[in-house]
Write a structure and sequence with these properties.
Length: 186
């Protein structure tokens, strides 16, 4: 699992599991920065003012500058994350955790489908880290949560029907509809 190109370790240095986890944690933090820079780029395309500096220039040139800075940061982070994730994948392949991707098992980048005979081979052998395999293991979490929410809603509705309305609610029901106060929506 030697990694080259990292200034903190020599080219023939072996990275420990803790080093790999630390690197993945740094990548995770950069993904949050990536999303933030994407948000800044989108915000630069709008006329909304940021909370950081309400006196900022709202001219077209200012918007263009902020957009260019945010997109530049976005693509730099995206490239960095891509390179570091590829290094992690190579490390997993070297450790035997992931099978190396070959031309026969490569996916078509346009359609996302596996190449010819590779589809049958991939279906026969499942990777323990494959997301679709992990997701197919148990699908009751969402159903359990939905049932829990429906039970809580039913209990709440029963409490409303069993208890007499409070004086605040009773006062609103007594008013004609045209005299009721409407809620302002922003």
């Amino acid at each position: 699992m030697a990694e080259t190109g990292n200034s903190s370790k020599s080219p023939d240095q072996v990275f420990t599991s803790a080093d790999r986890i630390r690197q993945l944690n740094e990548i995770d933090k950069d993904v949050a920065k990536l999303i933030h820079s994407a948000g800044l780029a989108i915000q630069a395309l709008t006329n909304t003012r940021t909370t950081d500096s309400p006196q900022e220039d709202n001219s077209l040139a200012s918007h263009k500058t902020r957009f260019k800075e945010a997109t530049s940061q976005y693509f730099a982070l995206l490239s960095s994350i891509d390179v570091r994730l590829r290094r992690q994948v190579y490390a997993f392949e070297e450790a035997g955790i992931l099978a190396p991707e070959t031309a026969a098992t490569a996916t078509n980048p346009r359609t996302g489908e596996l190449a010819g005979a590779a589809a049958a081979a991939a279906a026969a052998s499942s990777n323990p880290l494959d997301i679709s395999w992990l997701n197919s293991r148990k699908d009751t979490v969402g159903k359990d949560k939905e049932a829990e929410l429906w039970a809580a809603a039913r209990e709440f509705a029963e409490q409303l029907t069993l208890h007499k309305p409070s004086s605040a609610l009773a006062g609103q029901e007594a008013k004609p509809e045209d005299e009721r106060e409407d809620m302002d929506v922003d």
